[in-house]
Design a protein that fits this description.
The protein is mainly β and about 160 residues long. About 15% of the residues lie in helices and about 35% in strands.
Length: about 160
């Protein structure tokens, strides 16, 4: 595998994004390359429901599908299919731009995964996730605690 270019100047992968990405906050990731048993922890830099940027200790291959596990608090999304779009070296390791491939034949539970990625984007963006195709802001979901506090107990069925 050849050494990726250095992340600086014209090699900045952030400049080619079609949709906004959100600061990853406490989002964590674990990456597995298809055909390999080992997993690699990664520091997530930013995220959208279509892809993410992360920093790894070793470069990821361009020619193999990747499987991701993403976790933020109680939200745990497993086996998201992704592909490497760009990779460059930094002082901290390798900054890799990944694109999710939920339409891949390798992706199980496609609708569930897409729904979870959208929910994760809403969480990271403060509930204002913009649809990349329509530019619309979807309805913001309220936390369950807020919804249950507005229900009149007298209207509940016995």
């Amino acid at each position: 595998m050849t050494q990726p270019p250095r992340c600086d100047g014209d090699n900045n992968p952030m400049e080619r994004r079609a949709e906004p990405r959100w600061d990853a906050g406490a989002l964590t990731a674990c990456v597995r390359v298809r055909g390999r048993l080992g997993r690699q922890k990664a520091d997530v830099v930013d995220f959208s429901r279509h892809g993410l940027a992360l920093v790894t200790s070793a470069p990821l291959p361009r020619d193999k599908p990747l499987f991701l596990q993403l976790r933020l608090e109680e939200l745990n999304i497993q086996n998201v299919v992704a592909v490497l779009h760009n990779c460059c070296t930094t002082d901290d390791g390798y900054r890799c731009g990944l694109r999710f491939r939920t339409t891949s034949e390798l992706q199980f539970d496609r609708e569930l995964i897409e729904s979870q990625l959208k929910r994760l984007e809403q969480r990271l963006s403060g509930g204002e996730a913009v649809d990349a195709c329509t530019g619309e802001v979807p309805v913001t979901l309220q936390p369950i605690a807020t919804l249950t506090s507005t229900i009149d107990p007298g209207t509940l069925l016995p």
